[in-house]
Design a protein that fits this description.
By secondary structure, this protein is α/β, with parallel strands linked by helices. It is built from 15 helices and 15 strands. 34% of the residues lie in helices and 19% in strands.
Length: 403
Amino acid sequence: MKYIVVLGDGMADWKIPSLNNKTCLEYAKTPTLDKIVKSSEVGLCKTVPQGFKPGSDVANMSVLGFNPQSFYTGRSPLEAVSIGIKLKDTDVTLRCNLVTLSEDEPYEKKVMLDYSAGEISTAEAEELINCLKENFDCKDYKFYAGIQYRHCLVVDGGATGAELTPPHDISDKIIENYLPKGVNSSIYRGLLKKSYEILSSHPVNIKRVKEGKKPANSIWLWGEGTKPALADFEKLRGLKGGVISAVDLVKGLGLLAGMKIIEVDGATGNYDTNFQGKANAAADGLLSGLDFVYIHMEAPDECAHHCDFKNKVYSIEKIDGVVETLINRLSAAGEGFAMLVCPDHPTPCEIKTHTSDPIPYLLYSNIKNLSNGAKRYTEDEALKTGEYLPQGHLLIDKLFAIK
């Protein structure tokens, strides 16, 4: 028996007037999901526990079957593990975004124009982070380059307790009220301001501006945390698992759980990602010894952060194609399988950020009829079924219970 999670990050939404007052899931053409929903269980699940912010870290941890109330220690340590940083128990890590701020005002009055600096390339970002390393790295503070706009700061012997805001929560807002507060906040504020002085005139950004691109003219620190420890997935579940994702956060979860990280050429973390490459890599893994694969696709979330509902719909339609490929390949190989399709959290285009609302899920198996009456896989249909799971980390138990 094989098991699959197909996760469209931020796939759930609110009604959008420009889409005939439908959500992206309702508007998208999803022939495969429309077909399998007739024999699937559809419902709602609360993936973000009370008191937790609705981040992809908490929500993916839940969907993977780990209770955030027991295992969560912050977002950035998960990303640090993924990019190969060897953390000590005394280290404190922070996610370091390269962002685009407005240019004319004093630093505190600048506006968060783009939390991803125009989806800056990894090569350009590495140049900028290396420049910051030359200026900032010391015994206690070290910067590490990651992927595109996502990077890391490690504080040796640091303390937690800073109040830090994710940059995607403050798109188009003046940053003054969202600058670091609490423990080490004066140091962090100093790093932000100094980074603007350094990066705004860096050759990489001068070139980007000439090309009509957004400059990565500041860093933004958030996602503070300490070294985490997840239970080994295979020992816990008795299943050999793999993870497919372009996002360091999700790869870090997989690595900490002892799962195989499956790399896919052309995986970008946005709507230009290699959707079919992910589908085929998952099928290859399952047909060559893995029992479970967690396929994470960031694209719907990234589109929603930019209020790009057109490409969010496109991403959902491509995810429907991923489901089709998996069903076809595993069925052709004579494999019995069960599949969970869901987002980690909603990301409504209207507000450009995450919410902690329950997520719609679909459970399908090619060996068992699980129907509970849903007509489509949408937010409204999930609500109508009356199926509700208040503890997100138990959702995967419903998947693994299918034999």
